[in-house]
Each structure stands twice: as structure tokens, then as C-alpha cells.
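To the wet lab folks,

You asked to see what we're planning to order before we commit. Fair enough. Below is the target structure as C-alpha cells, and below that is the sequence we designed to fit it. If anything looks off to you, flag it before the synthesis order goes out.
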């Protein structure tokens, strides 16, 4: 007999779209206060200091100690494994510089707005992750011939749209065996901070954030496709609520601008003085190599190429771009867009019900003073 499932519908809201004139609610504000973005001036750092890296936590940050932590590897494997943190640290390590972006970045700019973590454009950061290639651990366990998916389970637990769950994501065996996929225990050379997955998280370079499972406690190799909530219900692009939709996977191209000049406190509107202004920012794509970055100082009417730095061997990390602008008194709208081998960022937001992968061009209104 099936155990009766508790009714969580009274405490767990279904996905919905905001009404036309509906502002951000207290509940969305509570999410935004926990899950902070990258202050855009921090785009100047090649590596984001951990406290400035964006943060997204679906449930609570689990309170874990490294001593008691174990990683279980089981399912369709020849030899199930139980690893301690010391076991992992004794294996050959690899360090990979990765730009991570939340799939919901840009969500709050959509009309209608999907009600969820209300990101503008700042859900991004770049870190150097050190750990053991997942492939090495899976090879030790011996992946069986019938394996199709690898399922990663975090130590955090919650309820989402009425479904009680551990945070869990599946990856195909092919994607899981990628050479830069890591079981990471260090961020920028130090142990992971609690909020970023201490003691060990998965890092899947090039993929939107949801794939990088934090507080990892279990890896299960599965002979059947994974049908858990975060793969089949949550992270899908859909126009209609009842269609299966397409899975959210690799990061679409995006460029961001360090807002120039200085801000007004309350509105954050930018102010510059007349004369030469250095424009700079970062651009990245997880799905294909970048082709170039363009800037506009007239709201997107005309574009010119920016100087794009090489990737310096970091194929999964953002690249710095710069451009010169001679500011003249008045109102201006600066804009920047990146192109990769598959295409250029769109002018308007690509809409879907979850608010995923909105990579519309970044625009920054600026007032230039008369002196
Ligand atoms: N266990 C667990 N892993 C998780 C999450 C989570 O809530 N629980 N959030 C995911 C999402 S949606 C994102 S965008 C990234 C954010 O990683 P960061 O907080 O280190 O920037 O972690 C992913 N991994
Ligand atoms: Mo995310």
C-alpha cells in the first residue's frame, strides 16, 4: 500500500505569472534578500570574491561538518563507493575557472513576470573551483553498460509547488563524463563557503546554475532517465503550463556593462561628467565560443565593436571587453551585446513561463552633466 502523501498545497504556491500591475511581493523580497546578485561594479574582478558571487539557495543552507560528511556512489556501478572528504582530497585534483549564471537571470524584466526569485541581470559570478574530476570517481566505481543518467542529491530539503524533496538533479552519463565536470571542495583556493555548497558541490562548466548541485551527499547512476522535479517540472522552457517543454541546459551568450560614473543612491541611476569615459564589462557563453562584443551609446540604434580580451586559456570563464565613449551633456542609453558561434543576444526578452535564459541586451541609462 502507498503511504498517504501529506497535503502541502496550503503552504506551497504553484507557479504563476504576475498580474499586469502587480508589484514585487513581500515573499519575493524575502527571496531576493537571501539570494543576492553580483554588484555590477564587481565585474571588474577576473575572479569574483566569494561574498560578491551571486547566490541561489532553494531551501535552507544545510549545517554540515566535514568530519561526518560522506559521499555515496551507487546504482548502476560495479563497485559502490563511500568517500570521505580526505578520500576526495587524496585524489588528483583539477582547477577550472567557471562563470556560473542562474537560469532565472533576467526573470524580473519579463512581461508577464513569472513569480519567483526576481533577478534583474546580476545572477552571475566567476570562481576557480578545485576538486576531483567526476569522471575519475565514476571510473573507480565502474559505470555499468546500461547507465543513462547520473543523479546528484544535495543535503538540503524543502517543498516546491506542493512536492516535498531533496534538491536533486540528473545529468546524462555523457555530460557527467565531461573532463571539466568536478566534485569541487575549494572555491578560489579556500574551502567552499557554507552558502556555496560546503563541503563539496558539483561543477558543470558551461551549464546554468541549477546543474551545479551544492552540499552533495549522493551520486546514483541510473539505468532509466531521471524524472525528478528539478529536471522534468522546474527547469523547462514552456509557453503553456501543460506542455513538456525543453530542458534548460547550457548558458546562452550575455554581455554586461559595469555601470559607468557614479550612482544616485535610491534609483541607482548613473551620472557621468562630459569627456572620455572608459566602458568595460564582461561577456560569456556556455554553449559556444564567443565571436565578439558590440556597444551602443544610443540605446541600440547603432552598434560598434568593443575590444574583447582573449580567454587566456579559460574556456569556461567570462572575458573582459572595453570601449571608449566621449560623453556629451544630456541623456543617453548605453547598451552592450555579445555574439557566439550560434547567434547574437536578442533586443527583447525571450519569454517563457519559468523566466529562464532571458539574455536580452543589457541597457544602462546615463545622465551626463554639463560640466
Ligand atoms: N543542493 C542545492 N544545489 C543547488 C541549489 C540548491 O538550492 N540546492 N541551487 C542551484 C541553483 S538554481 C543555482 S543558480 C546555483 C547557485 O550557485 P551559487 O549559490 O554557488 O552561486 O546552485 C544550484 N545548486
Ligand atoms: Mo538558479
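Sequence we intend to order:
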Amino acid at each position: 500500500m502507498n503511504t498517504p502523501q501529506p497535503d502541502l498545497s496550503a503552504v506551497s504556491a504553484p507557479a504563476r505569472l504576475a498580474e499586469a500591475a502587480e508589484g514585487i511581493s513581500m515573499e519575493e523580497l524575502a527571496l531576493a534578500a537571501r539570494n543576492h546578485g553580483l554588484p555590477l561594479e564587481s565585474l571588474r574582478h577576473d575572479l569574483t570574491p566569494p561574498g560578491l558571487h551571486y547566490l541561489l539557495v532553494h531551501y535552507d543552507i544545510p549545517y554540515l561538518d566535514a568530519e561526518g560528511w560522506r559521499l555515496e556512489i551507487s546504482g548502476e556501478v560495479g563497485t559502490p563507493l563511500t568517500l570521505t572528504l580526505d578520500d576526495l582530497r587524496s585524489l588528483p585534483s583539477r582547477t577550472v575557472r567557471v562563470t556560473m549564471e542562474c537560469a532565472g537571470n533576467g526573470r524580473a524584466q519579463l512581461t508577464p513576470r513569472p513569480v519567483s526569485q526576481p533577478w534583474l541581470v546580476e545572477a552571475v559570478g566567476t570562481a576557480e573551483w578545485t576538486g576531483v574530476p567526476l569522471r575519475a570517481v565514476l571510473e573507480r566505481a565502474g559505470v555499468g553498460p546500461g547507465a543513462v543518467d547520473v543523479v546528484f542529491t544535495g543535503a538540503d530539503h524543502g517543498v516546491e509547488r506542493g512536492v516535498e524533496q531533496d534538491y536533486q538533479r540528473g545529468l546524462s552519463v555523457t555530460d557527467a563524463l565531461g573532463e571539466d565536470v568536478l566534485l569541487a571542495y575549494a572555491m578560489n583556493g579556500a574551502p567552499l563557503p557554507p552558502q556555496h555548497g560546503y563541503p563539496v558541490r558539483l561543477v558543470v562548466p558551461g551549464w546554468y546554475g541549477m546543474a551545479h548541485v551544492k552540499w552533495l551527499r549522493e551520486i546514483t547512476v541510473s539505468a532509466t532517465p531521471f524524472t525528478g522535479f528539478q529536471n522534468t517540472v522546474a527547469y523547462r522552457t514552456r509557453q503553456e503550463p501543460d506542455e513538456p517543454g525543453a530542458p534548460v541546459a547550457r548558458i546562452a551568450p550575455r554581455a554586461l556593462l559595469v555601470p559607468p560614473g557614479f550612482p544616485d543612491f535610491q534609483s541607482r541611476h548613473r551620472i557621468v561628467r562630459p569627456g572620455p569615459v572608459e566602458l568595460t564589462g564582461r561577456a560569456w557563453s556556455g554553449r559556444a565560443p564567443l565571436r565578439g562584443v558590440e556597444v551602443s551609446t544610443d540605446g541600440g540604434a547603432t552598434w560598434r565593436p568593443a575590444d574583447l580580451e582573449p580567454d587566456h586559456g579559460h574556456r569556461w570563464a567570462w572575458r573582459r571587453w572595453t570601449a571608449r565613449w566621449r560623453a556629451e551633456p544630456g541623456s543617453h542609453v548605453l547598451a552592450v551585446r555579445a555574439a557566439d558561434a550560434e547567434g547574437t543576444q536578442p533586443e527583447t526578452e525571450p519569454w517563457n513561463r519559468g523566466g529562464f535564459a532571458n539574455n536580452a541586451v543589457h541597457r544602462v541609462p546615463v545622465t551626463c552633466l554639463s560640466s
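Structural context that might help your review: The longest strand covers residues 149-160. The pocket of MTE (ligand 1) is lined by residues 53-58, 100, 102, 154, 156, 167, 196, 209-210, 212-215 (CB under 6 Å).

Thanks,
Computational group
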